[in-house]
Amino acid sequence: MNAFTPVMMAELIAAFDAADGNDDVRAVIVTGEGDRAFCAGADLTPKGGGQVFADNEEVENLSDERVRDGGGQVTLRIFECKKPVIGAINGAAVGIGATMQLPMDFRLASKTARFGFVFARRGIVPEAASSWFLPRLVGIPQALEWCMTGRVFGSQEALSGGLVRSVHEPEELMPAAIALAREIADNTAPVSIALTRAMLWRLSAADHPMEAHKIDSRAIYRRSRSGDAQEGIASFLEKRAPNYPDTVASDLPDFYPWWDAVSYG
To answer: The pTM is what?
Structure first.
């Protein structure tokens, strides 16, 4: 169940690249196979690639690309996704299995799910940019408790702590995740979702609300003149399902991405 390897890292990144490049994909659901585990962490055995937390070769410069942890490369790719991402947490989610889900927009859990930010119990520290994501989701006190104790906890505690949106019987988890994805896909404009996702994730960390005002003013100005806005109003007045014409591939506004001047390596 400790499934995370360098191969899995590359395949997850490739999957999100493919999702962003396909306008027919409206939402992404991430879940584990079977009903025992979402992902119980990194493969700690030699067959897992021999690179559990970092490249085994000693490097002199800590800015060396080989120092970057694989989980962080995955979470940053999910963070950059233009489509809504839903985690269906169907079992054990420990270590990278817990942190890889943090940049997902929604996390739904099975009653059998277990979570653990166990890094201090392994002699390391939280990875996968979780020190940025986790406090934003659950607050500093809860993040500190989970990370400093390193204990494994159940889905009800995850729900009360704000980590997951809802808890479901195992057989109802995927139908609930699909229903949420379907609600988004059937009723919303893809370009609006891509912009909204970027705005909420990024601007909530801005130093001043003026930064949000600058971006949402530009976004409202551009989108109000779009075919999507015309269709949104028409479908509402005509009491029918919308058929939005704009695509993520072609119709994101000229100021997107507004953060492009910042390099994250």
So the answer is: 0.91
